[in-house]
């Protein structure tokens, strides 16, 4: 009998499968989608073009880009039953991501297992769920505020339409800034939510179930919930001159400094550096505070924990960017999810094609008894 290998906590640095979707090189501070530098894509292509790349393996030709944008635009519209369901379930305290769970479950009624579907039907399911997700989130956000949902505009760009449906903001500069963020957060290696979705996909399950599993992992405050907590830290600090005192308190209490450090990167998070360049265009008090606080936190960590460098991660400037385009903190995690659902669906399809169930082992550490103990009772 072969003795199973014991993996490190959190499966850190354990390779569990092959993927052609993307890769994160933590030591280099670099990540890519299908071999294309993701931070360059975020400033050079539309969200739909990046989506096409992640899903189909290549950037679209102009005619393909136009067709895919029309396809996504048509699928973005909510049907009457979904709107009625949201009206019936969303209250003043309902978080949009919780409403998304309800909507995805309802949209999945009658879905067949992915392993029983041909490839084109699987792909159609992937595009359909990813296209409708931002519309559900925007509608839930407005209903929770006592406002009517705004219908999708099939002819608009995905990022711009999401911002308009959520906030009413139609400023093209704001939409462009948001699109940069969305492209940069489509996929990021085998993070917890992506891995959770792939585990379910490995069973051959339906798309809705895979996405609900990914969503459950994503809702954790150490994952998708981080951007709002990073912004809350800025509110807590207030004057940048108080930053070092604040950091000392966090370190003394053995608390996490939200928005700093990353499980993979050992240098600057390229997504954070990208978003920093984008938000400096706004030159607002919040942006100036964020820049000053980032520098102070890095200096304080170097002073208090020599040799342990922690840099700002994507969540630190994500909250700043989303605030600047008019999204409230309650929509930070949903906006992150509106992008990441594209990565989830691409990973689900890739996992289903592999046709192998993910079934690791665990090391038992509880009490031991003899096999005959039960028979003697």
Description:
It is a single chain. The protein is mostly helical and 377 residues long. The protein has 16 helices and 3 strands. Strands 1-2-3 form a 3-stranded antiparallel beta sheet.
Quick summary of this structure?
The protein has 377 residues and is an all-alpha fold. It is 56% helix and 3% strand.
Helical fraction equals 55-70%
How far apart the termini lie comes to: 31 Å
Look at the structure and give the mean pLDDT: 91
Contiguous runs where pLDDT drops below 50 for at least 5 residues: none
Number of DSSP E strands: 3
Strand order of the largest sheet: 1-2-3
**Structural class label:** mainly alpha
Overall form:
globular
Taking the sheet with the most strands, its summary is: 3 strands, antiparallel
SSE string: EEEHHHHHHHHHHHHHHHH
Give the oligomeric state: single chain
Proportion of beta-strand residues: under 5%
Topology:
Blueprint: E1 22-25, E2 30-33, E3 36-37, H1 38-44, H2 47-56, H3 62-76, H4 80-89, H5 96-107, H6 119-144, H7 158-167, H8 172-184, H9 192-201, H10 207-218, H11 226-237, H12 243-252, H13 270-279, H14 285-304, H15 314-324, H16 332-354
Antiparallel strand pairs: 1-2, 2-3
Helix pairs in contact: 1-8, 2-16, 3-6, 4-5, 4-6, 5-6, 5-10, 6-7, 6-16, 7-8, 8-13, 8-15, 8-16, 9-10, 9-16, 10-16, 11-15, 12-14, 13-15
Key phrases:
377 residues; three-stranded antiparallel beta sheet; 3 strands; 56% helix; 3% strand
